[in-house]
């Protein structure tokens, strides 16, 4: 069985009892960054062997993990934060396991964009999650333009060093809408900052933004004011 195990997005206590039980009972845990995951595993006295599975070895490692699964081993897949497969390398192994009829089950838990949506005050019954936007300016602006009709709440992930640039692009391309920036959720410096894109450019320009960000754009007619 391949277990897709969600782990915390910051606060180590945001893990389920089933996740702990599963991580203790499987033969192997495949983790994006084994050193990072050891902090969580040590906190819950989980001594299961770890192997690395990350962006740059995901293809070769998936084949190796598939072989172990086909030999009858139980493997838990975890990512650095949240739910494996959501904007991280997990997808490749999950797809391969599925194609080879390996049994897969989810141990659900935290996901950054869901946590962000719930605190944003934006309409949450119909929304689109866009993962990471393209890094290159032209491609990013083109993607933003597709949000123009404002029919749904839009969420995406952003790296801290691109926050100000992206807010500037949102201001220009989407006519300065209200944006919610959810930063460092569940962590010590958690902040949910809302304002017009231009106001947030000013706010985040004052000191270099740190930490992890989720952006939320509301649908037309439902923008917070
Ligand atoms: N699999 C993860 C999930 O379930 O959310 C996402 C992995 S993706 C590689 C990492 C991105 O998630 C970060 O760059 C950031 O945008 C977002 N993220 C992760 N933890 C977060 C947190 N505590 N607060 C805000 N955003 C977070």
Brief rundown of the structure:
With 225 residues, the protein is an alpha/beta fold. 36% of the residues lie in helices and 21% in strands. Residues 9-10, 79, 81-83, 86-88, 111-113, 157-159, 182, 184-187, 212-214 line the site of S-adenosylmethionine (SAM).
Provide structural commentary.
This protein is of the alpha/beta class. The protein has 2 domains: about 1-105, Cobalt-precorrin-4 Transmethylase, domain 1 (3-Layer(aba) Sandwich), CATH 3.40.1010.10; about 110-220, 2-Layer Sandwich (Methyltransferase, Cobalt-precorrin-4 Transmethylase, Domain 2). About 35% of the residues lie in helices and about 20% in strands. The chain has 8 helices and 10 strands. A 5-stranded parallel beta sheet has the order 3-2-4-1-5, sandwiched between helices. A 5-stranded mixed beta sheet has the order 6-7-10-8-9, sandwiched between helices. Helix 3 (about 60-70) crosses helix 4, helix 6 (about 135-145) crosses helix 7 and helix 7 (about 165-175) runs antiparallel to helix 8 (about 195-205). The longest helix is centred in the first third of the chain and has 13 residues, at about 60-70. The protein is elongated. It starts with a strand and ends in an 8-residue tail after the last strand. The mean pLDDT is about 95. The chain binds S-adenosylmethionine (SAM). S-adenosylmethionine (SAM) binds near residues 10 and 182.
